[in-house]
Amino acid sequence: MDGQELRRIRKKLDYNLRDFAEKVGISRAQLSKYEREVTGLSEERVNQIKQKIGLALVSECELHVHFDYL
C-alpha cells in the first residue's frame, strides 16, 4: 500500500484526516506524511491500519459474474 492508495481508501470510507488518523491510532500529521509519501509505510503499519478499519472494507477485489446461456 502506498500513500495514494491510503488516501483513496480514507476518502472511499468518507473520513477526514483527523478522524481517520484517530480510528487507526496515529497522529493526523503522521497520516498526512504517509498520504503525501513523505514517510514510507512499513508492512507492519499497513497491517495495523487494515486491521483497524477492517480488511474486508479495503479489499480491491471485484466480483465478476459471467453467465453462459446454452
From TrEMBL:
A single GO molecular function term of this UniProt record: DNA binding
InterPro entries: Cro/C1-type_HTH, Lambda_DNA-bd_dom_sf
The name this protein goes by in its record: HTH cro/C1-type domain-containing protein
Positions of the HTH cro/C1-type domain: 6-61
Classification via Gene3D superfamilies: lambda repressor-like DNA-binding domains
Pfam families: HTH_3
Source organism, top-level taxon: Bacteria
Upper taxonomic lineage: Bacteria, Bacillati, Bacillota, Bacilli, Lactobacillales
